Amino acid sequence: MATGIQGKADKKAPRKEKMSFILRPSTARATFCATQIIKRSAHKKVNLQVRLNEYVEGLGKKGEVVSVRPGLMRNILFPTKKASYISKDYQPEPEQELNDMDEILKQTNERLMEKEAVALKKDQELLTNLKNVYEIKFSRAVIPGSENTFGSVTAEDIINKLKEEYNVTVERATIQVKSESGRIKSLGSHPVSVQIGHQTVELTVQVDPTA
Q1: Which of 65, 153, 191, 208 could form a disulfide with 184 if both were Cys (CB 3.0 to 4.6 A apart)?
Q2: CA triplet 123, 129, 134: central angle to 5 degrees?
Q3: DSSP letter at 182?
């Protein structure tokens, strides 16, 4: 009988060892999966908020703030200038920052040069037109027994006359009436200067008595 009992015990022992062997791979797989999830979570980065500089298919229109993957911004959108960083945490590389500043200064200078060229062309046209104006005539009532007039000729009168008769438009600040009051209050010829850019054009205002 002892031998029979011992035989049964010997048969059960390998079964326990087999069960232990079956459980170990399951535990290993669970540990492996958990490790992989932790690694993926650790490497997963939060999307960035960026501003689009132009229309980008699948993201949005120019000027819109969108959320994108850091890799997409770093490798495609930013190098091609299709988007700009807006995050306060983003600090561009010193070399990139200098390049961006140089580009901004270059664009600013180009715009200033364009405006200066347009202004210079406008001034040249105005100077040419003014040089064809030799004399501007006005008539005013005369105070009896004097050369003085009841009504004066002002800078606004000169501006209106240039516009109506010569189709020339000048600003009030460019006109200088050479008299103490800045108004012409007597008969005769009176010099008036018009400042256009760095050049001055001399005009003559002729005031005659009202008929």
Answers
A1: 153
A2: 130
A3: S
